[in-house]
Design goal:
The complex is a heterodimer of chains A (about 400) and B (about 350). With about 400 residues, chain A is α/β, with parallel strands linked by helices. Chain B is globular and about 60 Å long. The N and C termini of chain B lie close together (about 10 Å). Chains A and B meet through helix 1, helix 3, helix 8 and helix 9 of A and helix 3, helix 11, helix 12, helix 13 and helix 14 of B.
Chain lengths: ~400, ~350
């Protein structure tokens, strides 16, 4: 009798060990809370030159039409694409390997992209549009790209890589097939593609948010940082920039917490910090769950903090309703239009920038009402700077998702 | 069959109490008390009313999920689908309500029906088609996850109404000392009491008997397939209640519900309920859930680096379950203390253990 019971307990324990790992990696992580957080950025994720370049790019007036930011480019270096010109662009096939549509930002962007494709198809500038979705799986995306290459049907391959290092060889394979390749959003460690499209970047995002807190809080105020998860370059850059800015300020950074963007965790973590003392400011590396963080202040009966979120509408609506002191840094969602436009330009043999840096301007108080007005009918998990107002299917394509 | 801990809750109160202290209930209670003491030293204000109520509000959904999971585990099965179900329910609610107050009650009714259907499918596939429950509910978990992703195009849309959020967020205001007594706490208490009463009813005994030895239970007149199906339905309905509370607590985000099935199973087992069925009490499962939540809070209070947290949690859980399995006896197991008996001298165990 004894033996099996001990075995059973052992098995139970083993299960628990495993379950503990799966459940709680991203959990209520307190982390930090000591002097380290906020003073110096982690060397692994901080590139001083790139940081300064991004901060400078914020001040540069981009080339291109002012009312179409998705066609603007910051300091572009135009390259010739005549070799890729297609005789009959209306028959050309665009192949798009998408990393995933696993968060509202990507869902919003992908809808915009599909509508842009429709517009270009009507104009006869592109033909067929094929999509594969890797659901955040690197291996899946590698085989998706390989399948596009093997099919031989693609006249342009557009790639939104799921991770930087792992996808680099796959992107290079696509380049070697001779088909023009367009990469956007996250980058890869290669310059074989015709154009790499992205907004200014994570350092600018994080610095916009941190600078706003520094300007709007008294010296000595306490700031809590809420981060989604560690180890993702775009998010790490945001935090590294914030550490750089906070390090030069008189603000006290209480620490940072990983939240997985889960509202329940965010609310619980912020509530616990409020139980222990004052929190005057909240810095977030992405806007998901900003409203949950604010609700923690409401439920604790505390005044709202100065907060940086993102241009997600639930946060911006809360900002307007409660008249918060807030900023919405933007990771330009309209960038999803640019790759298909770039593809059509390549098919026409027109010049494109080799690195296409799109503008990335935060939404501040002065333009809050304007952006909310423009997105009045949009659902709450929509992004204000989606930039699809002039596309066919507006607004139904976005409201009825 | 050996007399066991836990299952004796249907006996007289005194023996129930005594029995529960021999099993995992006492371990969970002890661990919970210990964690609370450490929290109190770190943050003395934790036991003032409002922080305690905030803890109760956060813990309530897990308590309810643990009760649901208990029903299934004690009947000898698993339910891995609850995390996905919670996620699906919140996403369904957000999409269908879309901020309309008038839609709140119809949508909650629809969620309950949906929960019922999921539980029924889990139960019938497991019992009538004889698919192991770990596979059935793993399948349901994936189906729900995929279906919701497909339906929403990848990430949730819509918004919950204010009234939908009341159970998870609101409470009875201005109570002396406590401040706000959350509805979530009230609901969790009702669920826990109902579950205790249910386990004392003939159905509850049939459930435990099924988990202990389904062949014997069947011979003694228990309709095993129906009992187990009811347990799955109970689990899914309670997951739906938990979904209302979780959605209400923090609103809708893409990650809601992720990993909850494992947290719930952890809670139940930490309470001393034995995987494989037949042993453990509802109260133990509730204590287990509170312990898990308290552990999360403690990690927070200690500023434990997030990287090491899962390891610490795993160690504590293994230690607690092993301690409970030894029933508090810290000496080496008998078989390690003396030479093994000659095989033929051993008594034969029952088929279950």
């Amino acid at each position: 009798m004894r033996v099996p019971r001990v075995l059973l307990a052992g098995a139970a324990g083993l299960t628990l060990m495993l379950t503990a790992c799966t459940t709680d990696t991203p959990d209520d992580s307190p982390e930090g809370g000591n002097g380290e957080a906020g003073s110096t950025p982690d060397g692994e994720w901080f590139d001083q030159a790139e940081y300064e370049a991004q901060l400078a790019q914020r001040e540069i007036t981009p080339e291109g039409p002012e009312d179409q930011p998705w066609l603007q480019a910051i300091e572009p270096e135009w390259i010739d694409t005549a070799e890729f010109a297609h005789d009959a662009p209306e028959d050309a096939t665009l192949c798009f390997s998408n990393a995933s549509v696993s968060n509202p930002w990507r869902v919003t962007g992908f809808i915009t992209m599909e509508q842009q494709v429709e517009a270009l198809q009507e104009e006869g500038r592109i033909g067929d549009f094929r999509v594969s979705d890797a659901a955040d799986d690197d291996n899946q995306q590698i085989s998706d790209i390989q399948a596009f290459v093997d099919s031989g049907d693609c006249d342009v391959i557009i790639i939104s890589p799921s991770t930087t290092a792992t996808l680099t060889p796959a992107v290079e394979t696509a380049c070697e097939s001779g088909v023009p390749v367009v990469v956007f959003d996250r980058g890869v460690n290669s310059d074989c593609m015709v154009t790499f499209i992205h907004p200014i970047g994570g350092y600018a995002f994080g610095a916009d948010a941190a600078e706003f807190l520094v300007e709007n809080l008294d010296p000595g105020s306490k700031v809590l940082a809420l981060r989604i998860l560690p180890g993702v370059d775009v998010l790490e850059h945001r935090w590294a920039a914030a550490q750089e800015v906070f390090g030069d300020s008189d603000l006290e950074v209480l620490g940072y917490e990983f939240t997985e963007g889960d509202g329940a965790k965010i609310k619980d973590l912020v509530s616990q910090h409020l139980q222990r003392g004052e929190v005057d400011g909240i810095w977030m590396d992405a806007g998901d769950g900003a409203v949950a963080a604010l609700e923690a202040f409401e439920d604790a009966g505390r005044p709202y903090p100065v907060i940086s979120g993102e241009d997600e509408l639930s946060f911006m609506r809360k900002w307007q309703e409660e008249d918060l002191t807030a900023i919405a840094p933007v990771y330009s969602n309209f960038q999803w239009r640019t790759p298909v436009l770039a593809a059509s330009m390549i098919l026409a043999g027109e010049e494109v920038p080799s690195e296409w840096v799109l503008p990335q301007e935060p939404v501040r108080q002065d333009r809050l009402d304007e952006y909310l007005q423009r997105n009045e009918d949009m659902p709450s998990l929509h992004y204000a700077k989606f930039g699809g107002e002039d596309l066919p299917g507006f607004p139904e394509a976005w409201t009825e998702r | 069959m050996t007399p066991n801990t836990g299952t004796s809750s249907a006996l007289s109160p005194r023996s129930a109490l005594a029995a529960s202290f021999r099993g995992g209930t006492a371990t969970a209670a002890l661990l919970l008390a210990l964690i609370f003491v450490v929290i109190a030293t770190q943050n003395p204000s934790f036991f003032e009313g409002p922080p305690l109520m905030a803890f109760a509000k956060k813990a309530a959904p897990l308590v309810i999920l643990a009760v649901g999971q208990y029903l299934v585990i004690v009947s000898g099965e698993f339910d891995l689908s609850v995390g996905s179900l919670v996620g699906a329910q919140v996403v369904i609610a957000a999409r269908l309500i879309d901020g309309e107050e008038s839609m709140t009650l119809p949508v909650i009714a629809l969620m309950l029906v949906f929960g019922l259907v999921v539980g029924l499918v889990n139960g019938l596939v497991t019992t009538l088609l004889r698919v192991q429950s770990i596979i059935t509910t793993l399948g349901t978990m994936l189906i729900l996850f995929g279906a919701v992703r497909y339906w929403t195009g990848g990430a949730p849309t819509g918004a919950l109404s204010e009234s939908f959020r009341v159970p998870g967020r609101g409470g009875i205001e201005d109570v002396p000392f406590f401040g706000q007594v959350p509805w979530a706490l009230v609901i969790a208490l009702v669920v826990a009491v109902a579950a205790v009463l249910c386990m004392r009813s003939p159905f509850g005994r049939a459930l435990v008997a099924t988990g202990d030895n389904d062949v014997a239970a069947a011979f003694s007149g228990v309709r095993v397939w129906r009992t187990r199906t009811m347990a799955f339905i109970g689990s899914s309905l309670l997951a739906t209640v938990a979904a209302v509370l979780i959605g209400g607590f923090a609103g809708v985000t893409a990650q809601v519900g992720e990993g909850l099935e494992f947290t719930a199973i952890t809670a139940v087992v930490l309470g001393g309920v034995v995987l494989g069925g037949g042993r453990g009490t509802v109260v133990a499962a509730v204590l287990g859930a509170l312990t898990v939540e308290a552990l999360f809070t403690l990690f927070n209070q200690l500023y434990l680096p997030s990287t090491i947290q899962p390891s610490v949690q795993g160690l504590i859980i293994i230690a607690a379950v092993a301690y409970a399995a030894r029933r508090g006896d810290l000496r080496l197991p008998e078989r390690l203390r003396r030479r093994p008996d000659h095989p033929t001298e051993r008594t034969l165990g029952s088929s279950r253990r």
